[in-house]
């Protein structure tokens, strides 16, 4: 990797580390960075070890992984559609994953079954959106985007129906989960592993993605296997979205805001944008979750509220620019 690519990633990595240190250190009991390091190295008081290792650090790592997953998924969808308004939330992938996960919850399953159901829901949503947009002809980016918005609204109606027939005692947790609540995140390691493996598999395809972003005809003329690459993007975006939804519920607009903002600063080279999205998306959600914990402390806001307050005006601005 050249120096021009390494330097922005190093800056983003330092910013991500700073965001995580801030998140772990701030709370009802403040913990200094030196004390956090001491706890990680096996020292520190019993209270500090409990706060850092059992409460704050797992939640912070889960927020980082979820933000990175959503941002990378959004970047992939935007390359595929050549449209900055595309992201898993807008195209209905998050809604499909949420429906799959909620069905597994209502059936009494947990753990890997919920994850598999979320992935199946996201994959089904992908096939549904692209199948409807294709119709009897060929799909265009604008038609696909409009189809995704309609399908996302349909998933919202299905989720409302499921909430209406759910047991009363399960409703509070399900509602907070749907709004995106990091307090329900368990182990961060599955999401971190999926993020790392996905980036390791996709980033080497950066040159092909750069060509695909110029259009499928030009990509095919330059020797890119367009159809297999498109299907790889579909499946990767579904996997990333399903893992994020399973970890923290339905969180919108991260996949919309982060890739677009990074392109404004760093350009359109996917070899740089994809790993930058993983770092910047993670840092953004860590900071949003920290803010959600502090705004009405000791109560907590769902982190999805914070990302929506950021994402809605950004989405409207992008829609205005692309009219």
Give average pLDDT, whole number. 84
- CATH topology call: ABC transporter involved in vitamin B12 uptake, BtuC
CATH superfamily descriptor: ABC transporter involved in vitamin B12 uptake, BtuC
Fraction in helix: over 70%
Structural class by helix and strand composition: mainly alpha
The CATH first-level class comes to Mainly Alpha
Give the uncertain stretches in residue-range form.
none
Tell me the number of helical segments per DSSP (H or I, 4 or more residues long): 14
Family: Belongs to the binding-protein-dependent transport system permease family. FecCD subfamily.
Transmembrane segments: 12-41, 61-81, 88-107, 113-132, 144-167, 187-205, 301-320
Keywords: Cell membrane, Membrane, Transmembrane, Transmembrane helix, Transport
Main location: membrane
């Amino acid at each position: 990797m050249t120096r021009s690519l390494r330097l922005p990633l190093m800056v983003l990595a330092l910013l991500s580390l700073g965001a995580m240190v801030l998140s772990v250190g701030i709370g009802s009991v403040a913990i200094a960075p030196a004390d956090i390091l001491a706890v990680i190295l096996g020292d520190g008081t019993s209270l500090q070890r409990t706060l850092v290792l059992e409460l704050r650090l797992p939640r912070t790592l889960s927020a980082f992984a979820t933000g990175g997953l959503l941002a990378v998924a959004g970047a992939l969808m935007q390359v595929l559609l050549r449209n900055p308004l595309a992201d898993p939330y807008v195209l209905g992938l998050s809604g499909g994953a949420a429906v799959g996960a909620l069905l597994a919850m209502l059936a009494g399953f947990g753990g890997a079954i919920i994850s598999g159901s979320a992935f199946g829901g996201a994959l089904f949503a992908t096939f549904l959106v692209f199948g409807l947009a294709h119709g009897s002809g060929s799909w265009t980016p604008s038609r696909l985007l409009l189809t995704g918005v309609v399908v996302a609204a349909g998933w919202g109606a299905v989720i409302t129906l499921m909430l209406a027939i759910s047991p009363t005692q399960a409703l509070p947790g399900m509602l907070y989960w749907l709004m995106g609540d990091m307090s329900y995140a368990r182990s961060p390691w599955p999401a971190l592993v999926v993020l790392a493996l996905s980036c390791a598999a996709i980033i080497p395809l950066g040159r092909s993605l750069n060509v695909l972003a110029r259009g499928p005809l030009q990509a095919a003329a330059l020797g890119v296997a367009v159809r297999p690459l498109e299907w790889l993007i579909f499946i990767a975006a579904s996997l990333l979205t399903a893992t994020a939804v399973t970890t923290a519920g339905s969180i919108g607009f991260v996949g919309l805001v982060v890739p677009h903002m990074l392109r404004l600063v760093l350009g359109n080279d996917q070899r740089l944008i994809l790993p930058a999205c993983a770092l910047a998306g993670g840092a953004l959600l860590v900071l949003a979750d920290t803010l959600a914990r502090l705004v009405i402390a000791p109560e907590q806001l769902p982190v999805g509220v914070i990302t929506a307050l950021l994402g809605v005006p950004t989405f409207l601005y992008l829609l205005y620019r692309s009219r």
